UniProtKB/TrEMBL annotation:
Family to which the UniProt record says this protein belongs: Belongs to the JARID1 histone demethylase family.
Region described as Disordered: 1-40
Coiled coil: none
Pfam families recorded: Cupin_8, F-box-like
Residues annotated as domain F-box: 82-128
Basic residues compositional bias, start-end: 13-25
Primary location: nucleus
Gene coding for it: LOC101781696
Protein's name in the database: JmjC domain-containing protein
Domain JmjC: 280-440
Organism: Setaria italica (Foxtail millet)
Amino acid sequence: MPGAFHSLLLPLQRKRKSKRHRSRNHPKENKPKNHLAAAGDPSFHLKSSASASSRDIGCLVQPLGNLFLAATPRANLRDAGLGALRPLPDDLLLDVLGLLPARDLAALSAASKALYVVAAHDPLWRAFVLDELGGAFDFAGSWRTTYIAAASGGQPHLIPPRALKIRGFYSDYLFQSWLCANMEMRHEWLARDNIERRRGISVEQFIAEVEEPNRPVLLEGCIDGWPALQKWSREYLLEISAGKEFAVGPVSMTLDRYFRYADNVQEERPLYLFDAKFAEKVPEMGRDYEVPVYFREDLFSVLGEERPDYRWVIIGPAGSGSSFHVDPNSTSAWNAIIKGSKKWVMFPPEVVPPGVHPSADGAEVTSPVSIMEWFMNFYGACKTWEKRPIECVCRAGEVVFVPNGWWHLVINLEESIAITQNYVSRRNLLNVLDFLKKPNASELVSGTKDRVNLHDKFCGAIEATHPGMINQLQLEAQQKAAARKKQASFWDSAADAKSGGFKFSF
């Protein structure tokens, strides 16, 4: 094995920045390690699409509890084969191995069975492929075999057909990563559907009953006339986008390569096609949909070409999605499903989801490594909360409205295609302006090259196109605040958090 690796990897070797196998927004200290009791629960089912490569890697690692419950307990193969690396916890060990070039990692994997198991951790090889090949790769069932195939010049006889069969390696950390990649969504995670559903409401009703109170809603029937609903098959998209590359995670890929990847991948965090320039790249895609009537007041449009990124086409396989986040620049958003279905979980601005830790200034958000892990370890806790999340499954032809400031998580239940847009209306204009003028706006503002001056440019453009709008909205906000204060009860006044008094809060 080391000899083959050495000869195969030389053509791809070049100076490479050291990278951890996780992004800095998903640190290791946030990864739960002691919640694997459910792994043996028969209600957890593996996906029928789990690849042979994925199943082979899964055979290498067992949860740590199995070591103590085995009929004939024996020493953990991990401890015997790591040598001086034995004291390192698995998450830190993977961080160390993530600093090695591919050739050294391959050589290390031949040193012992334990190192073979750890060095086979697929996210390590994903980093090599994306760093060195960008989006110009053909996925071969796993990131490890994909890298070897590229390094060997596509010579199949040099590609290991399957992982070695190794028994006796126990690790909660590695097993949970594998389980999250291969487990089906549980029925109880999909059963709760408590979002308000509306069909045929007027724009005035939407503003008064949904947008003003800043509440999520699922809209039915409002995109029935979109050509995309009938036209956007794989074949059609491949035809109109031939030769064009789309943003997929940290790289750019043609759609045919991405579909080949999506058909064969089984990993904890699948790459997600999320492209903000799709309509410029493929004008036909921009002509195949129109903004629903409820969202047509889009005040960021006064900035013209200087407006922040605001619309995206989103394509991904089952299991792909977005972990908990708040939409950029304090905007509201709508998300329309063209193909497939998505599970949504949303929390109001004042309720931080369990397992999510925003920094004090809002510039950083840490959360579990994968969406599936959040469901495994945190979803159940929400059942006892007074303010439980708003949830739904959104299907083709339906639109979810995400109010500004709301936390939301989305996972694709099947291969899905969607269009989403962020926008600013009169109802959230003051929120957006406050956000853009924060002292650390240069860190918070996204989707634009000029983060520092966006506030002033936006104010100037609004005043030029809608004279007096900002002053009028500020006056109305003051009047509403005064009315609320007048109606406040004695206890509300006595428990005002700003006065330093005691206050019940969630």
